[in-house]
Write a structure and sequence with these properties.
Order of helices and strands: EHEEEHEHEHEHHEEHHHH
Shape: elongated
Number of helices: 10
Strand order of the largest sheet: 2-1-6-5-7
Structural class: alpha/beta
Helix content: 25-40%
Number of strands: 9
Bound molecules: 6-chloroguanine
Largest sheet: 5 strands, parallel
Length: about 240
């Protein structure tokens, strides 16, 4: 997977792609990340990338020319084959299913908008997709780009050591994760649940599943209806809902 990120603030990305999973994914060649400063594609001595809005009102709007120029220069003849994703609070909501969808592409171009706005011609005639990472306001799309690169990279073949880990990750199958424990068996008087120390693998699997269902019911009832639940899961859910 190749990510090309267009931004006015490439310095914001320092560090985020240089540790842990993404660092290893880059080193192994599973992922390539190229940062492109939109300012480098702005015309004139002053390299202006924004301007005041037509019609008045506050804030500065990102000009279309540098963003079109950067996209065309970066993509070259691949221009028609690569999704051009504008990061904006107005986009469709990013979630695990969008991450899976994006992970199917060989290359993605991400345009980091600034919060005040991007000229509508970029939305309409350059972007092929618009994505938001949630219903809150960020100063720009950069942090959203980091979120998307991280979530998508984890899904690429060979990036995670243990393929079961991705499968069991929160949301991968529509439920929150069950609780995890490691040593010591008692910490400040708080013991690890007996079942986890029992060595009964079938019971451990059942307990974890039930914990995941219970937790999802308590914390995210909104996602429970789209989770993949077995007959046994549904029976358990009915029991806990009945016992209140
Ligand atoms: Cl993609 N951009 C901005 N500026 N704010 C956001 C966002 C994106 N997603 C959530 N909030």
């Amino acid at each position: 997977m190749q990510f090309d990120i267009l931004t006015l603030f490439p310095g914001l990305f320092a560090g985020a792609f240089e540790e842990s999973i993404i660092k290893r994914a880059r080193e192994s060649g599973s992922v390539t990340i190229a940062l492109h400063n939109i300012r480098d594609y702005a015309a004139g001595r002053h390299k202006v990338t924004d301007d005041t809005p037509y019609g008045g009102g506050g804030g500065m709007i990102m000009k279309p020319e540098p963003i079109f120029a950067a996209t065309e220069a970066v993509l070259g003849e691949q221009a028609d084959m690569v999704p051009v994703i504008l990061l904006t609070p107005q986009g469709r909501l990013f979630d695990q299913s969008v991450a899976r969808e994006l992970a199917r592409h060989d290359r993605l171009l991400l345009i980091c908008g600034r919060y005040e706005g991007v000229d509508e011609r970029v939305h309409r005639y350059l972007a092929t997709d618009e994505v938001s990472i949630g219903d809150y306001v960020l100063s720009g799309g950069e942090i959203a780009a980091m979120v998307i690169v991280d979530a998508v990279t984890r899904l690429l073949p060979g990036v995670l050591g243990d393929p079961a880990a991705t499968f069991e990750d929160s949301h991968a199958e529509g439920l929150l994760e069950y609780p995890h424990y490691t040593r010591p068996p008692t910490f400040r008087g708080h013991p690890v649940p007996d079942v986890l120390l029992s060595g009964h693998h079938a019971e451990i699997t059942r307990w974890r599943r039930q914990q995941a269902i219970q937790r999802t019911l308590e914390r995210r009832p909104d996602i429970l209806s789209s989770a993949h639940l077995t007959e046994e899961d549904l029976a358990y859910l009915a029991r806990i809902e009945a016992s209140g």
